[in-house]
């Protein structure tokens, strides 16, 4: 059986993609540390983020509860999850998270790294489990 170079790279890329996607992302080990290091200072129940939106990030249940405006995580669908859209800069810069603009009293944070954003995206797409 002969494979052309095109077929070989197609099969290789599908295999690499499948293997890369099969790793389970853990809320406790992967997502929570990102939240604790980048979000909790404003979303601890007392900070500016909590005051403005009602969004508290102390626990998994807090995260899944969302804001006073509604749910921010749609398990299994990152593209329908406000949390993902906000951290991936797909919304108005004034509401991107973590905030990195001038109108933030609690301090200016930098954006999450691509790897951190991808971790949260993958976790949501995998069902946003409390694991």
Helix and strand string, N-terminal first? HHHHHH
- Give the biggest beta sheet: none
Low-confidence stretches: 5-19
Number of strands: 0
Supply the number of helical segments: 6
Distance N to C terminus: 44 Å
Please tell me how large the radius of gyration is: 18 Å
Characterize the structure shown.
With 131 residues, the protein is mainly alpha-helical. 45% of the residues lie in helices and 0% in strands. The protein has one domain (24-125). Residues 5-19 have low confidence and may be disordered.
Highlighted features:
131 residues, mainly alpha, 6 helices
Topology readout:
Elements: H1 5-21, H2 27-38, H3 48-53, H4 60-65, H5 82-87, H6 114-125
Helix pairs in contact: 2-6
């Amino acid at each position: 059986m002969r494979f052309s170079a095109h077929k070989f790279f197609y099969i290789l890329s599908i295999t690499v993609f499948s293997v890369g996607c099969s790793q389970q992302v853990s809320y406790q080990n992967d997502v929570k540390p990102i939240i604790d290091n980048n979000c909790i200072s404003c979303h601890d129940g007392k900070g500016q983020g909590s005051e403005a939106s009602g969004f508290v990030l102390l626990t998994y249940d807090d995260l899944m509860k969302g804001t006073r405006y509604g749910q921010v995580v749609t398990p299994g669908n990152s593209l329908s999850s406000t949390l993902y859209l906000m951290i991936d800069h797909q919304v108005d810069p004034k509401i991107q998270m973590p905030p990195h603009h001038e109108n933030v009293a609690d301090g200016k944070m930098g954006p999450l790294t691509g790897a951190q954003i991808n971790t949260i995206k993958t976790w949501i797409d995998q069902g946003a489990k409390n694991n």
